[in-house]
Amino acid sequence: MFSGIDTGPEYALKWFSLEAAWGKINMSDENASLTDSFLKHPEVKKATDCINSALTERLEFVPPLCKVFESSYTRLKAKPEHIFQIHPSAREKLPDIINNPVQGIKGGPEPTDSEKPWNRRLNVGIVFSGGPAPGGHNVIAGLFDALGKTNPDSRLFGFLLGPEGILENNCIEISREKVNAFRNLGGFTMIGTGRTKIDTPEKMQRARKTCRSLNLDALIIVGGDDSNTNAAFLAQELYNDGIQVIGVPKTIDGDIQVRDKNNELLCAVSFGFHTAARAFSHNISNLCADCSSDVKYWHVCKVMGRVASHLALETALQVHPNITLIGEEIADFIDEERINKAEQQGSVDYTAYGMTLRHVSRLICDGIVRRAAAGKNYGVIVMPEGLLEFINEIQVFIIKLNTIIADYNETHDTDFHSNFPTLDEKLDYLRRMARMARENHTFSVWNTRDDDLFNVLPPFFQEGLLTERDSHGNFQFSQVETDKVIMGLVKDYLKILEERGTYKVGIERKWYLRTMENSGLDPEIYGPALFKNFNSDEPFLLVNESVVSVKTLKQTLVKEGVIDNEDDVPGAVEKIYKASVPKFKTQNHFYGYDGRGNDPTWFDCTYTYNLGRTVFSLIAGGSTGQMAAIKNLEKTFEQWEPIGIPIAPLMHLEERKGKLSLVLEKALVDIESPAFRVFSAMRGQWLAAHPGRDHYRRPGPIRYSGQSEDARPITLVLNELGRAE
Fold first, then answer.
1. Pick the catalytic residue: 145, 226, 253, 450?
2. Is 253 marked active-site?
């Protein structure tokens, strides 16, 4: 009767067996009554209740309002000084909203009769689109409070499970009880979210039908770059229906940032970024304490951020991990040595631009080796999940392999993957292409250097790059374990360095002296033969590079005349040598979903509540095709300025699913920004490849109030300080 479910006799026996097992757990009637009594005890109920004091305090927290919202009424005022470089395609496809100005919000007296009635009854719909981000519930709360204060008969509808709720007309009316149950809480639990896109004429018609059936005056879309792009197209589609569409910038990646043509910052960061970064930072800080306690693990922390590395940078500034990789810096790297060599040969080496995967792994190895020499064979590494997308050779590999596979299929009228089903067969085909390139220099799709670099990659990643593409011919980075790829290369190279004798754990001089003296051996006799820096005043001693085994240890001691060939290596000396042999152990961690579901910081609580108020002012002022924003987020709260930013002028053409589409441009980390320059200047200190304490920072747990709570992201603080200076 139920497809896929076992309902036969054997299943029944299993079920009754489980029932019997549970029966044994059940207590007697006497014990059950005692248990019921115990469960009804007030203190037991209090201890096990879903509602606790921390939750109650958070629900009761009232975010402060921007000064303009303290006025009884607000008006919109165009700010023509902010202009944008408008793409012709945006002007063509979004004609009714392309000339929208940036709109400021001003407080003032009650509107005149000639103005659109401020206190008119409104029906508003709101939808969450894309992944959750801390603070979304406060967008609803801010909008709900403003609607109710202005006209108690106004109604707010929440579309369930994202844009699909709009298409299916699946919504609930949001009540005060529901809003009060989610104030200042993380997640999008109140109405849920989803990733459906309203991107076809048929879907647009269904959305219009839903909005009309609810008699909506406005539709609010809370989401990232794709969702706000969707908001712009919906605003254009519903323009003649008189239905306003307002976007709200949401993404924990922090990659929605808006500047005008004159580079003035209008929106410093999307909401949810600060909370996610703080959540990741608190957990990674705990790992810093862990690794410096048992001194045997390198914790490898991958944080969300597929396209931009903002979260990795903010986490680095919050925690001071030993090694942090920023994708934008890796992409911007220029290998001057390769450029000069190519110039001498009268050619151009385009592979000199951008860091190779091998180079990235060598940088990490260098930090690990340097820390080990100072007696620290442990540490914390942070990298963004999209790191591989910034590595030039990976992009080149993907382009070349796509070309090779497509050309093969077209030439042979067959399927590359069917003809070469195993990884070895695919690699052999590429090897033959590299040989052809050596013999015929005009044949250069896949050359010897490509083949050498490709063979450095771990087999599982080679297989991933050679796997079948999606229906659009695209490679899916989301399926690649970035940290596993990078650390696989790191481990391989560390083994080579260990065999060369250059990767060793430094031996504390005091421990060496104590160990030798306790064994009745003269440290001054053995020291010069054993350590290359024994005669220095360095606190950590490094075993000679020639000593890579107990056998070579004995050979060295014999050669230096410390022991005879017939003698055994003293136990204490062997113990000291073995202590210098590094044991590289890693623990991998991914930080993403936990941060985006975290309860918001004071910054995000306050930011989003005021965004909700901004949305109402834009609706009341008759705007459409605008994105609610707060200007001056990088400054103190007293300077925050609610505004509406036109979405259409922010759009540009970008390749999506094999074709050019109008979308909002994502903001990448600016490696010339003050925040990045501070990070770059400090990371040598944070590597702490020296004796003594590490420089880890403890950001502490997230709070929504209190003197110890960050008022804003550190990246914003540093960038503002740098701009002011």
1. 253
2. yes
